Amino acid sequence: MKKILFFISLVTLLICTSCHDELSTLGNNWVESDLKNVQTDTCTVRMSTVLLDSINTSNKSVAQIGYYKDDIWGKISGSSYVEYSPSTFTPDENLSYRFDSLTISMKCNGDYVGDTLAPLKVHLYELTENLELNTSGYLYNNSNVSYQSTPFSTINIQPKPNGKNHLEYRLSDDLGKLWFNKMLSRSDDFTSSDNFRKYFKGIAFVPDESSDKSLMGFAINDSSLCINLYYHELGESATDLTVKFTPSTPNYNKVNHDRSNTPLQLLNSGTTVLASDKMSNVAYVQGLTGLYTKIEFPYLNNILEAGQMVSIESATLYLYPVKGSYGVLNPLPSSLALYQSNENNVTEDQIKDVLGSSVQTGSLITDNDLHENTYYSFNITSFLQSSLGTIGVNKKNLQLVIPEDKINSSYQSVVFGDMKHPQSQVKLSILYKVYKTN
Predict the structure, then answer these.
(1) Distance CA 54, CA 134 (A)
(2) How many CB atoms lie within 10 A of CB 382?
């Protein structure tokens, strides 16, 4: 009896050990010798930098002002154009008033590139034409609006290292007195927003090129970028009063980008897509300048040659910022956005997780010690599963951009290395199953 039980146990053990993972998701009738898992990180990833014709920058509630230059990005000049609305001021004929000062108050929004403690010299020009949105309702980073040849004021912005971001600077007394006298005389120019818009068309905030250390973001709201006219009533005791002119819409940010003497210099109006191997093996992403990275997998279909049937089980894309291209002066974005595009670089959809339920923004892993293993990762399993086997016009690409809430209002940026970069190499890790290998 013991011999019989031992024989049955031995047969059962052999059956169990010969059936591990043979069912798989690829078929119920496969045998172990026909199926294998393959892990690879050598799949070719092709990267290119794309320059957009224009970026919508109107009415984004932020003024990006400054001038910044370095060997990576070249020279970037950011100007902001803002219209204003007046406050109601009805003088009392029985009282006398005296003008005190005209100022502008500003609040940093925390977005910057460069040295935020360096002084920033900004010229304020009066616009000679109103800001007008195009038929689609936009103004762009390359829109042109004229202003007077001479600034009515110049301010020297000095950010504060103690965290206080409320700044206030004195403007032209001549302009302040002119406005004050008009209000005292009940000029029609100050009785409504429409009349004031005709009289004073707005301000162009233009950086001085001698201030080449930073680009800084300032909020545009009821308490920032406001013009304050201070005055007081004359009497037995002086009463300090204020008329506030608040920013209105439209407003927009203008960008001038000189890419000379950098790898980006090959991008111009005639060349808007440039492969990384023509740009020192790097690809660029930046918000307001309109740069994004195009990512392709030209030889993905080669894995189909591994067997009669191939199935991608998982795929993760690792993107490594180039060491030395980021740091205190140019911090990395906390997240990035990945979109699917067609052969004409037309955006079709944002890349989501495997379940398709949430949008991916890239997981940033930071190496604060050696700065050699800092990277963004994206799970692109679903994208590659749908791309495997496609050819011609059906083949899709990826677009890597600054997230939607920043691309129109920030200079956040990243420089990525391609597969041939000496230090920071992009990598695609794929796990796939092969049935009946060749």
Answers:
(1) 13
(2) 16
Radius of gyration of the chain (CA): 30
To the nearest whole percent, how much of the chain has pLDDT over 90? 68
- Count of alpha carbons within 13 Å of 39, Cβ hemisphere only? 1
Please give the Cα distance from 84 to 98 (Å, whole number): 23
pTM of this prediction? 0.86
* Greatest Cα pair distance in the chain: 122
Where does residue 233 rank: exposed (0-12), middle (13-18), buried (19+ CB within 10 A)? Answer: middle
Element (H, E) at 217: strand 213-219
Each residue of 59-95: b (16+ CB within 10 Å) or e? bbebbbbbbbbeebbbbbbbbbbbbbebeebeeeeee
Coil, helix or strand for 4?
Answer: helix
Which residue is listed with tokens 């204020």?
A: 242
Query: What letter represents residue 247's amino acid?
Result: P
> In the chain, what are the domains?
23-52+272-437 (2.60.120), 62-258 (no CATH)
DSSP type of residue 41: S
- In this predicted model, what pLDDT tens digit does every residue of 164-218 receive, in sequence order? 578 999 999 999 999 999 999 999 999 999 999 999 999 999 999 998 899 999 9
131: Cβ contacts below 8 Å, ≥ 6 apart: 81, 83, 139, 145, 201, 202, 250, 251, 252
Q: Is the peptide bond before 250 cis (omega within 30 degrees of 0)?
A: yes
